[in-house]
Amino acid sequence: MKKYGMLMTPPLAQKAYDGDKTVTRRLTPWQPDGPVHWYNDIPDMDDGWWEMAFDNGSGWYPWKMMVPRYRPGMVVAVKETHWRFGRKVRTTSATGRLSWKFKATGRDILFMCPDEWLAKKPDAIGWHKIPNLFLPFNLARTHIKILDVRPDDSRDITEADVAAEGFASLWEDGDWHIPGHTITHPSYNGEGVCVDPGECSCGGYSAKEAWPAFWDSINPTFPWALNPWVWRYQFERVVL
């Protein structure tokens, strides 16, 4: 049985682990240039498939059929940055390229690691930082069960959905702190003014106002201005 993983940045992976993140959005593989309709009641197809139709001037014309990567009922591992104990060894590819390959010693794993524990050199025995892509399914600390999936217009996101993304509580010291992404003026319209102070919980900006700038920082190819279509996944944490 194939095991699936979902990449998340460290703070959002922590939110999923804590149960504070229950929704995530992922780009659909096809992005139309204009308005579309979505259908999932396709004859002779199971419920996982969706059909995208566009207006060709005389009616809605079927354009693309696609299925989300994750479907209701699936259990998925949250892939996050981690640390393994072992060492790196030099390897040579078939083309003669030299690279490092990590060799773990045992199955010990950390999701936070003090600097003094880190190996001082690539080939030294110790704790090594490993990118999220390489986290094995069985060693993940967080597994989630997909409850619902649907296509969603990016700009239809609500304040409640932004909070469900685990984003609302990432505001610290007057700025959004996302590893690798520093957003100094998160208001999408650039005015820096919260329309309703009662909704503000993050230094003068509501989470919804800050969300577009965060989206652009992690999806530069399909920025907020393009209003890309996404799969909206709702999930819950499960213990295996």
How would you describe the overall organization of this protein?
It is a single chain. The protein is mainly beta. The protein has 2 domains: 4-77 and 143-238, no CATH class; 82-130, no CATH class. The protein contains 3 helices and 14 strands. It has helices spanning 10-18, 159-164, 207-218; strands at residues 4-7, 23-27, 36-39, 50-55, 60-66, 75-79, 82-92, 98-110, 126-130, 143-153, 171-172, 175-178, 181-183, 229-238. The strands form 4 sheets. It has a 5-stranded mixed beta sheet, covered by helices on one side. The chain has a 3-stranded antiparallel beta sheet with strand order 3-4-5, with no helix packed on it. Strands 8-7-9 form a 3-stranded antiparallel beta sheet, with no helix packed on it. Strand 4 and strand 5 form a beta hairpin. It is elongated and about 65 Å long. Residues 176-204 have low confidence and may be disordered.
Radius of gyration from the alpha-carbon trace, in angstroms? 21 Å
Strand order of the largest sheet: 1-6-10-14-2
- N-to-C terminal Cα separation, in Å? 15 Å
Approximately how much beta-strand content do the residues carry?
35-45%
- Uncertain spans: 176-204
Number of domains: 2
Work out the number of β strands. Answer: 14
Helices and strands, in order, run as EHEEEEEEEEEHEEEHE
Relative helix content: 10-25%
The number of helical segments is 3
Please state the overall shape, judged from the principal axes of the Cα atoms: elongated
**Which structural class is indicated by helix and strand composition?**
mainly beta
Question: Biggest sheet, open or closed, and with what strands and sense?
Answer: 5 strands, mixed
